[in-house]
Amino acid sequence: MAEIIVRNVRKEFGDFVAVKESSFTIEDGEFFMLLGPSGCGKTTTLRMIAGLELPTSGEIILDGEEISQKPPSERDIAFVFQMFALYPHMNVRKNISYPLVSQGMPRAQVKEKVAEVARILGIEDILNRPVGGLSGGDRQRVALGRAIVREPKAFMMDEPLGALDAEFREHMAEELRALHDRMGATTVYVTHDQLEAMQMGDKIVVMNNAVVEQFGTPQDIYDAPATMFVADFIGSPSMNFLGFNGTVSPGSGSVALNGCEMGVPELREAAQGDLVFGVRPEHIRLSTDGAYRGEVLATEYLGTTQIVTLDTPNGEVKARVASDQPAAMGETVGLEFNEQTVTLFDETSGRALRSKLNEGVLGHG
Length: 365
Prior knowledge:
By secondary structure, the chain is α+β, with helices and mostly antiparallel strands. It has helices at 42-50, 92-102, 107-121, 136-148, 166-183, 194-200, 218-223, 228-233, and strands spanning 4-13, 16-26, 31-35, 57-62, 65-66, 77-80, 154-158, 186-191, 203-208, 211-216, 240-248, 254-257, 260-263, 271-279, 284-287, 293-301, 305-312, 315-322, 332-337, 343-346.
């Protein structure tokens, strides 16, 4: 089984800390996403799993074996880069077969394996073509084929779709996920695109400033973000943050926003001081008589829905509502929140307060 355990892994480059004590487990056969902005440590983490970088401290366990100080050649891991690392002087067939030929595999067996991989990837008709004249999508398939043909324990993918245009990226993302489902191989995939991570991943690690902010299923991370960073990074538009000063206690199910009592999931901890009321745009309703009011600043028509931007006493809010919902510029309307989807945060630490909503879901590194 190709289970991968990353335990308290840290990576330093001189005085610079690229990854701080990160821990998570990648189950056998999972499509696992490392997500975060540029410079957050996600690619360095991937490279440490692959053996291209050695951790300063901590453990990496693959298939029950501690491998953190082993070279890549002893890890049985295949790597797919954003830039297609193909041999330009070889045709497609020779590029795919190269790892097997290098291992001294018999010619008949190599031919059989290459044919099988080409069939899986739908590139049987280009096996004898030079790679230089191929489209970006076909070159990516060839790069995947060269990784797949080895039948490694796990695949490491570093933004493999980053060089493709937006429309083709979506198509290739669907193909990659379908390929993974057919093969069932453990895959670790780095991306900065939260939509890509939500679309493809079984589990997601969200990183920021060298730290694992949260890990879990896409739904858990979206519904119950562990930090304000995660809530802001995941979702489009991202979660609304309404700041207020107050005191909350365990068992409490409401807070006061500008004098209006707002329901929240039952809290499991106490907090006081600068707090943040977090709610996603689709969990806001506009009404004529709601006690909490906001002025319509702008509307953005999106077909079946619209994004309405409002000015409220606690900050600007975006609501995703039906496109036929009346919302005239300059109008003052009531805002009603789905109380079972609200997340409260401590503004100083950025951490989500424990509540009935996120109980048993929050995951930190």
